[in-house]
Amino acid sequence: MIRVENVTKNFGGIRAVDGVSLEIAQGSITGLIGPNGAGKTTLFNIIAGHFPPSSGTIFLDGEDVTALEPHELFHKGLLRTFQIAHEFSSLTVLENLMVVPGEQPGEELRHTWFNFAKVRVVENRVRERAREVIEFLEIPHLENELAGNLSGGQKKLLELGRTMMVDAKIVFLDEVGAGVNRTLLQTIARSIQRLNQERGYTFCLIEHDMDFIARLCDPVIVMAEGRLLTQGTTDEVMNNEDVIEAYLGTGRKHKRVSEA
């Protein structure tokens, strides 16, 4: 579904992403891990159109989408969330979901004046879909809560819900579990699995919680210092000596070798 070919990103004299090539298969839940500063979020931003690559090419379903803006990729079904949730804090959970679908007739003043019946029909349809999303995410008690009052984990669930308001093909989740309590994290994990299994969503997620990665992801891709280090199952990558060195330093790697 996604193919990244030899992508590089420079910020001045710093090379944040260095010749990365990878593929994300349709229907997979792919994990992207690596130590801080590995270039993971920068790569996400490039794929999602927030940064242009310094060189290299991005393909979505075989189409070159390297030069497309985020809103153009959104309409092609490529969505991403952020480490810090971007909610409309003064709107309710329901209203936050309802504003996601684009090109609603109520957005144009002429329709609100001269075609109010159409506006109402579409609005009711969007509201119904938003309530279905709220039920799916197991948060019906939060429907009328202001989004600004939600906990960090609830805001992450809301961001996931917003991807469900459009016909998403692939969703990039940036540290969806960061700062989330274990109960809510289990709800998020169940929602991701159900979206993948029941609705055919493809996911790629950055995460530092390896239990979360092990539960959800296959394959797992590892980056370090802007480069692709390795990929495989969770067990394979966590027992890879290069991964151990990238995370824990050469001392731990050499210690393991000497103990053997």
Automatic annotation (TrEMBL):
Domain ABC transporter: 2-250
Source superkingdom: Bacteria
InterPro entries named in the record: AAA+_ATPase, ABC_AA/LPS_Transport, ABC_transporter-like_ATP-bd, ABC_transporter-like_CS, BCA_ABC_TP_C, P-loop_NTPase
Gene Ontology cellular-component annotations: plasma membrane
Record bears the keyword Nucleotide-binding: yes
Pfam families: ABC_tran, BCA_ABC_TP_C
An example Gene Ontology molecular-function term: ATP binding
Keywords linked to the UniProt accession: ATP-binding, Nucleotide-binding, Transport
Signal peptide: none
PANTHER family attached to this UniProt entry: CONSERVED COMPONENT OF ABC TRANSPORTER FOR NATURAL AMINO ACIDS, CONSERVED COMPONENT OF ABC TRANSPORTER FOR NATURAL AMINO ACIDS-RELATED
Name this polypeptide is given: Branched-chain amino acid transport system ATP-binding protein
